[in-house]
Write a structure and sequence with these properties.
The protein has helices at about 10-30, 40-45, 60-65, 70, 90-105, 115-130, 145-165, 170, 190-195, 220-225, 250-260, 315-320, 350-385, 410-420, 450-469, and strands spanning about 140, 180-185, 205-210, 230-235, 260-265, 290-295, 305-310, 390, 400-405, 430, 435-440. With about 475 residues, it is an alpha/beta fold. It starts with 10 loop residues before the first helix and ends with a helix. The model has no long low-confidence stretch (mean pLDDT about 95). Bound molecules: pyridoxal-5'-phosphate.
Length: about 475
């Protein structure tokens, strides 16, 4: 029988315990097997039990959970984790995030948390400065780029229909003027999902052909726009999830402006190129867009979950998102109510680790983080390309590398599986323009030159092992 359930005296004991588990995890992180070792069956056997009637002792519950992280979790914040596009968490971001949980603020409105509201207001301004976007844009701190795309496209839906004399917030889409949605053939799946949530569907999306690197073809976009009349939203991308390539944003921006269409840019990780002098040119013209979605849990390396929606027309953004109710104490002054800018109502103070990270790294530190990640990606691509039978499929312009082995899907798959089992690093696969490939994404603040070199050695060891058979 647990006696501690409602005693605040145990906070110290539990937090100390959690602190020890956390420190142990972080100490082992740079050297542990990157993949998970436990099977689902093993984890179920260890963790499934009838719901306790009286409850277990809380400290034991914490020990139980933490006891399975070594075998049960993939170390996706390891400096040698290169799967998907996944960042880690810098020390200051993690510490700030602990405070967020400790304070347990409902960051929906100013009235509940003046401190969080102001921290997010300042962080929003810093982000617009860093990305050099319109300083009066609306900014919302959401759970990730999926919801950032949703938020931006909700603002877009509002604005293009308002121009057509339709109030979508009041009247919905039934009977509304038709909206043309244009996206590249290579747009991220979360754009489609956002369009589904918004009642726009995916079947009618007009897909613009992309080139060999996955960049939208601006000439094809211009041809398409010339055939369209009425409310139009164009979705472009800064940073293809496979190649890291950027759509030609200046050309796209000029074409959409000339057409009077709304331009949205998905820059989940690519928008951060704006923070690096050496990579800025990739995103040239991005400021011509109307809305921008990005992630903070990827390249800024704050803990999950954290994304950012930014909209040039702040009024369209607010109108699409705001909620009001008689019991809500919303401000009418300068104070920022987060409910005006995000789909959530009650919410975590997820802008706080963003504030802490931006302040602690500074624009120099962020530039360094971006440039270093890109340098490690280039290092790995060059080292791998030196091996007979290995080909890099993309131009490595950012932090993404596509690798193919023996020009063969099965061999490539086998190398990926072998590397995941070997454990020095973790990376996944994809299909790029009909061919199987290994994906390398360098997005972690802690990845060193040595991590990149050790990972290349492990990859080549697996590949040579397969060839030797
Ligand atoms: C990761 C990613 C997304 C989705 O972001 P989440 O943070 O997972 O919601 C959208 N677009 C691109 C290009 C991405 O890389």
């Amino acid at each position: 029988m647990a006696t501690d359930r409602f005693q605040s005296a145990v906070f110290d004991e539990y937090l100390e315990k959690a602190g020890r588990h956390a420190a142990h995890y972080l100490r082992r992180l740079p050297d542990r097997h990157v993949g998970a070792k436990a099977t689902r069956e093993e984890l179920i056997a260890a963790l499934r039990a009838p719901l306790p009637e009286h409850g277990d002792e809380g400290g034991e519950v914490i020990d139980l959970i933490a006891g399975h992280v070594d075998r049960g979790a993939v170390a996706c914040n390891s400096p040698r984790y290169f799967g998907f596009v996944v960042g880690g968490a810098t020390p200051v971001a993690l510490a700030a995030d602990w405070l967020v949980s400790t304070w347990d603020q409902n960051a929906g409105i100013y009235a509940i948390s003046p401190l969080v509201s102001v921290l997010e207001e300042v962080a929003a301004q810093w982000l617009l400065d860093l990305f050099d976007l319109p300083r009066d844009a609306g900014v919302g701190f959401v759970t990730g780029c999926q919801m950032a795309n949703f938020t931006c496209l909700a603002a877009a839906r509002h604005a293009v229909l308002r121009r057509a004399g339709w109030d979508v917030e009041a009247d919905g889409l039934i009977g509304a003027p038709r909206i043309h949605v244009v996206a590249s053939a290579e747009s991220h799946i979360t754009i489609d999902v956002a369009l589904r949530y918004l009642g726009l569907g995916t079947r009618s999306v007009l897909r613009v052909e992309s080139d060999g690197q996955g960049r939208m073809r601006a000439d094809r976009l211009r041809e398409l726009l010339a055939t369209l009349d009425g409310p139009t939203i164009v979705c472009a991308q800064a940073g293809n999830v496979n190649t890291g390539a950027f759509d030609p944003l200046r050309e796209i921006g000029e074409a959409t402006r000339a057409h009077g269409a709304w331009l949205h840019v998905d820059g989940a990780f690519g928008l951060w190129a704006r923070a690096s002098a050496a990579h800025r040119a990739l995103a040239d013209g991005i400021d011509l867009a109307d809305s921008w979605a990005t992630d903070a849990h990827k390249w800024l390396n704050v803990p999950y979950d954290s994304g950012v929606a930014m909209v040039r027309d702040a009024e369209a953004h607010r109108t699409a998102m705001t909620s009001t109710a008689a019991y809500l104490v919303q401000t009418r002054g300068a104070e920022r109510d987060a409910v005006d800018w995000v789909p959530e109502f009650s919410r975590r103070a997820r802008g706080v680790p963003v504030y802490a990270t931006l302040r602690a790294l500074g624009s120099d530190g962020i530039q360094d983080l971006i440039a270093r990640s890109c340098a490690r990606a280039t290092q790995m691509a060059e080292a791998l390309a030196g091996e007979d039978g290995v080909r890099i499929l993309n131009d490595v312009v950012l932090n993404q590398v596509l690798v193919r082995f023996d020009d063969d899907d099965d061999v490539t798959r086998a190398v990926i599986d072998g590397v995941q089992r070997e454990g020095t690093c973790w990376l996944g696969g994809t299909v790029w323009q009909g061919r199987g490939a290994m994906r390398i994404s360098v997005s972690n603040w802690a990845t060193t030159e040595d991590d990149a070199a050790r990972s290349v050695t492990a990859i080549l060891k697996v590949f040579r092992g397969l060839r030797g058979r």
